[in-house]
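We close this part of the discussion by returning to an individual protein. The sequence in question and its structure tokens are set out directly beneath this paragraph:
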Amino acid sequence: MEPTIIFLHGGPGFQDYLKPFFEDLGNDFECVFYDQVHGPEIKIENLLLQLDEIIRSIPGKIILLGHSWGAVLATEYAGRNQSKLSGLVLMSTGLTDKHWKDEYYKELEDLGLENAELEKIFLTPEEVALGETILDKVWDTFSEETFNSIKQSYLGKYDVTPLLKSLKIPIINIYGEKDVRFPARVSKTFGSFNSNMIDFQISNAGHFPFLLEAGRMQIYKILKENFL
């Protein structure tokens, strides 16, 4: 039986955007893509319960792969339920509210991007040149009421480093070399929180390190080499 990878998209408040980029992994893994629940009273516990219901329905080995906010959600789940998992993949994430915000604004200032358009923050010039409209697609699904609810109850004070430190399962940390949103210089330090973590920097990539085919193929290779 092939291992199952459950993909957790970013947000909170978006719908899944990962399937078009990772569905080809279905040749080697069972892949699960789903939309996190929306609503005006959604809390982190609602998302964890939804994820747990999916996990309890799946036999065999399970790996969580979270992108951006999805990686925070994946770490939160893993810290509470690591016995149910065989691995954790963090992609373009922050581990604490204060840490990533301070570094994010410092990065913007260093790069002169304080008033830049979103694509210059989330994407590299090479990614922009693709003509990929991922930002438009992502924002078209945005639920402001969901985001605000989780922001008030969780985002403004989250710190998943204690959970990360407690994990004994394999952990892979993937980040774009030129990510501004969650700066690469911060992502490089995550291994200091857990000796089980393996770091992979994707060259010429921004906050979506799977957009460029070369980066996506590298991520595919990383997942296969570590979980098959």
In short: The chain has one domain: 4-227.
